[in-house]
Structure prediction request, 128 residues.
Amino acid sequence: QVQLVESGGGLVQAGGSLRLSCAASGRTFSNAAMGWFRQAPGQEREFVAALTKSGGSTYYADSVKGRFTISRENAKNTLFLQMNNLRPEDTAIYYCALEDPTKPGSYYYTERGLYDYWGQGTQVTVSS
Prediction:
């Protein structure tokens, strides 16, 4: 049973920073892609950032490029999202996602379909 647990969300003023963490348990995930998505009220869940299996490549939504950084620490089975210079439009529930590389598929790193496991989410609220 795979479990993903996000933490680190909260309320911050515009221009501030937060660091989200996602702790994975139940399997070794060093060979799986991982990503962050977010969902604002009344909107679709959207891609934020992703890290490839090897960790050698990263992908970001245009709206967060230069402000957010995704990273992972395989020894601790943990994924991070460092968010700087936050804006009110970053307000959303942030979800961690994990690929199961044993399952067939042809999704890109930015697509929800690639990911097989999801966390419960952590709320990020940015005040103006």
Summary: The chain is about 0% helix and 45% strand. The longest strand covers residues 18-25. The two ends are 40 Å apart (CA to CA).
